[in-house]
Each structure stands twice: as C-alpha cells, then as structure tokens.
Amino acid sequence: MDKFFRMAGVLLAGLLAQACSVSPPPDTVAPNRTTRQMVMERVSAVVVTDQGSLDRWVNRNFSTSQAPGDADGGSAAPITPDGYFLTADHVLAHMADRNVFIIYGQGGRLAPARARVVWRSEHDDLALLHIPVKTPYFYEWTQPDKWLPEGTRVMHGGIATGFSSGDGKLGTTLAPQGGLTRNRRFKIDIPLQPGDSGGPVVDAYGRLVGINSAVEFLVPMETAFFIDSEGNRPNTRSIESLIRQDRLRNGEG
C-alpha cells in the first residue's frame, strides 16, 4: 500500500508541476531550405490496393496508364532506421483483404515495399506500419519534455501539397509529455488536400511534431472557407514501446 501511495504521489506531483508551469513564447524561426530538403528525402506514400505489386507503376515514373485503378492511400512518416512508419488510421479504412504498400525513397529513387500493420487506433486516427527495408532517412521527435507553444512555425510533408503549401503555425499549445499523456490533437493553419493525411508535421528544424489527420472548412451557401487542419501527436514513449515489442515478436530485438 505504501508503494502505491508513493507512486501516486509522484504522478500527481508531476501533473501538478505541469499544470502550474507556463508555456514559453513560440519559436518563430521558419523552416529553411535544409529542412525542406530533409522532408523531401523522407517523403513516403501509403497505397492500399488489390494489386500484388506496384513495381511496374513505380518503375514507369508513376505513369497514369500503369496506376492501380482501385488504389486508396495517403502519406506516412518514417520514424526509425529499420522500417517503422506512422500514418493516419483512416488512410487504412479500406484495407480489408487488400495489400498495403509504402513507397519510400531508397538510394535516390522511390521503391514500393509491402507493409505490415503493427498497430492502429481508430479513436486516435493513428497507425504504425512496418516494411522490411532499411530507412536511413527518418524523423526524430521534438523533445517530449519540452513545450510546443501555439505560434511555433511548422510545415508538413504530405504527398499532395507538402512541398507547395509553404509553412504555417501551430494553433494549439502542446505541453510537455507526462507519464499519463495520451494522444493529443492539435491545429495547424496549413490547408491539406486528399493524399496529405498521414504525413508528417515538423518544426523549423525538421523534428516530428505529429501526423496530419483532417482539414476543417466552413461551408456557407456558395464558397468554402478554410479554417484549420488537424494533426495528432501520440505519446512518443508508447510508440517506442510498441516498436520494441514488435521487434521482439519478430526476432529483431
């Protein structure tokens, strides 16, 4: 019983300290050319299809005539050097009895690899995928014990508009991650298009903030007005734990 109260005291003290702390001012440094190059090197697509291979389509520079006509998909973010990716769960909404591929940059070219679903959460709109490929270009998370204040400059790396939309700002303050922190939704002022879902949201230094999820428009009678887009930031330690467990199950730990 004493051990329980000690643990509870530590957790409550941590929560109280977080609640009483004050967010610092945002980092207003904008993503530069180096950050944009970093994001380009990590561009990744998720394709859900009945097709058994995407090699012909990819090898012919994504020719429309070779494109799988039944494909669904979106974007993804590589988060380890050994093939683990995060995407949005709704990107996999129609994956039942179909194949999931990730198209990832390898040695200066894009190549498809069959993906395995490690974990997914419809509630959090997040999914963890794995491909049996080395992924030397991957994202490091922003430090989980640091504030990400509203107004922090960000950009996104979705395959539809990630390289043409410019940068924007975080519309939600993300407090330091605690032991009980779960998935957190946040706003960004960058419009997303179909295909951007599941892609990375990064800070000015190319560090991963979270994953693209949705876009919100105000739709009056004649014209739709963009309001904001939404992303998800999981508990990074929970994701790391899922990856460790999966490596052990597959003899890679």
From TrEMBL:
Please give the biological process terms from Gene Ontology that the record holds: proteolysis
Q: Which UniProt keywords apply?
A: Signal
Region forming the signal peptide: 1-19
Cite the InterPro entries for this sequence.
Peptidase_S1_PA, Peptidase_S1_PA_chymotrypsin, Peptidase_S1C
Q: Does the keyword Signal apply?
A: yes
The record's PROSITE patterns line, in alphabetical order, gives: PROKAR_LIPOPROTEIN (PS51257)
Q: Name one GO molecular function term.
A: serine-type endopeptidase activity
What PANTHER family does the record tag this protein with?
PROTEASE DO-LIKE 5, CHLOROPLASTIC (PTHR43019:SF23), SERINE ENDOPROTEASE DEGS (PTHR43019)
* Listed name of the protein: Trypsin-like peptidase domain-containing protein
